[in-house]
Design a protein that fits this description.
The protein has 17 helices and 23 strands. The protein has helices at about 50-65, 105-115, 120-125, 135-145, 145-150, 160-170, 175-180, 195-200, 220-230, 240-250, 305-315, 315-325, 365-390, 405-415, 430-445, 450-460, 470-499; strands spanning about 5-10, 15-20, 25-35, 45, 70-80, 85, 95-100, 155, 170-175, 185, 190, 210, 215-220, 235, 240, 255-260, 265-270, 285, 295-300, 335-340, 355, 395-400, 420-425.
Length: about 500
């Protein structure tokens, strides 16, 4: 028996699975929660990395209690992208990690953009813009706002790298997650020296070694092996960001398949054999964690919108769906601009939520609830349209996340996107991706020429009963609503910036 552990450390908690390679069965699952630091100023979002290691330990204990520990061969870690984990020379955390949804770094983005010669120049040099969610401006923020802490900085890690370091004692970073720092030249898969120096001339010394997706971060430390009763030769794979691991876990390792995650935030991403860089900078030009590229849209407001509306109107999930089904597609013209946390794509960091089209007819719970689902989905479709303009041709969208557990929202997604939508048999796509990458890494370390697609074709499966085909009539309605939402976004941006 050969068992592989996949771990996904997200914003709200850590989840794990154990995959039996012989049968393809998920033998165990476990999870542990962690929370944001409370009481921070608006726009700041932080967590203590010690919460992640505590959750990891809890999840590993829960997983390993269900299986034969001696059969575990490797561990693959998925982590929330972009978080900045600053360590000193002793490997101690200097301050809490600033997360992907921290929008406090707008000034730093402007400074870095100017230093690189403007937005177009930054896109030429790295493939990406500097946006508040990325890691680079967070590092400059530390230098500008906490200079004493910056002087202690010896190692820059991302959340999944920090867990890899905890397991192995090695400082590494793979190309996929590294591309979300805005410090990597995504075309060449090397650090962009000009972007690094724009923060500080000494920063290059703090960046970890870059490794390929199939390379191991290392073996587990003896103390970890003893703590969990594992063999000391257990490998830890390169791992990756949650989107990169989610791509593996949904079989999105070949062109044609598009993955979409409907969680607190929303992401849509596709596999490309060549770099896909957006001249307008709206689509993130990421590398993936397979050796290819992963053009990606990220919106910051998906289930945020529906949960806020559900809480306001006092609906449980069943009542929410019933009210939505009673309201026609398009909510009779009521459009929600769901920028409750600002927005990343399109880049509207100072945006707020807005309802447009209120009238006696649309002032009902059903219209509000449907507009929340539709508004969040139209926000994601903005990016899907941009992906199409850059050459991505989706044949099927594989969906994950809490929002896609309801058939009502899945149908809305199919109608908005205009292509079939289907959920996965294993909804923990990022954790499954970690386990599959761990198996791939183990094979490569043994000298085997296993292709990752061979593993995904065998172990990744869709749940056909969830498939939704787009309705042409509804799709026509949503095309009109899309133009309204897009026009609202552009028109209101000067107003948002004056607030």
């Amino acid at each position: 028996m050969s068992l592989f552990i996949g771990i996904d450390c997200g914003t709200q908690g850590t989840k794990g699975i154990i995959l039996d390679r012989e049968t393809g069965e998920t033998l165990a699952t476990a999870r542990a929660s962690h929370s944001l630091i409370e009481g921070l100023p608006a726009g700041h979002s932080e967590q203590n990395p010690s919460d992640w290691t505590s959750a990891l330990e809890q999840v590993l204990d829960g997983l390993l209690d269900q299986v034969d520990r001696s059969a575990v061969r490797a561990i693959g870690i998925s982590g929330q992208q972009h978080g900045f984990v600053p360590l000193d020379a002793a490997g101690e955390v200097i301050r809490p990690a600033k997360l992907w949804n921290d929008t406090s770094t707008s000034e730093e983005c402007a400074i870095l953009t100017k230093k690189l010669g403007g937005e177009k120049a930054a896109l030429r040099k790295t493939g990406n813009r500097f946006v508040p969610g990325f890691t680079a401006p967070k590092i400059l923020w530390l230098k500008r706002h906490e200079p004493k802490n910056f002087k202690r900085l010896a190692h820059v890690l991302l959340p999944h790298d920090y867990l890899n370091w905890y397991l192995t004692g090695n400082y590494t970073m793979e190309h996929g997650d590294a591309s979300g720092t805005a410090l990597l030249d995504v075309r060449k898969r090397t650090w962009c020296k000009e972007a690094v120096r724009a923060i500080d001339p000494s920063l290059m010394e703090t960046l970890p070694a870059l490794i390929a997706a199939y390379e191991p971060a290392g073996h587990i430390r003896p103390a970890i092996a003893e703590r969990f009763g594992l063999n000391p030769d257990v490998l830890v794979s390169a791992g990756g960001g949650d989107n990169m691991m989610g791509a593996i876990g949904t079989g999105n390792v070949e062109p044609g398949i598009v993955s979409a995650s409907f969680g607190t935030s929303g992401t849509i991403y596709a596999c490309s054999r060549t770099p896909v860089t957006d001249p307008d900078g709206e689509i993130a030009a990421f590398c993936d964690s397979t050796g290819n590229w992963l053009p990606l849209l990220c919106t910051m407001n998906v289930t945020t919108a529906t949960e806020m509306m559900r809480g306001l109107l006092g609906r449980d999930l069943r009542q929410y769906d019933e009210d939505v089904l009673k309201t026609p597609p398009g909510a009779d013209g009521l459009v929600l601009l769901p920028y409750f946390e600002g927005e990343r794509t399109p880049s509207v960091p100072n945006g707020t939520g807005n309802l447009f089209g209120l009238s006696r007819r649309t002032f009902t719970p059903g219209h509000f609830l449907r507009a929340a689902m539709e508004g969040a989905t139209l926000g994601m479709n903005y990016g899907l349209m941009r992906l199409r303009a850059l050459g991505i041709r989706p044949k099927e969208i594989r969906v994950t996340g809490g929002g896609m557990k309801t058939p009502v929202w899945r149908q809305i997604a199919a109608d908005v996107f205009g292509v079939p939508v289907v959920a996965m048999k294993e909804d923990e796509g990022a954790a499954l991706g970690g386990a599959l990458q761990a198996a791939w890494c183990t094979d490569r370390a043994a000298g085997l020429k296993t292709a990752l697609r061979d593993l995904t074709r065998r172990f990744v499966a869709v749940e056909e009963s969830t498939r939704c085909q787009p309705n042409k009539s509804a799709n026509s309605v949503y095309k009109k609503l899309q133009s309204v939402q897009d026009d609202l976004s552009v028109t209101l941006r000067p107003v948002f910036d004056r607030r």
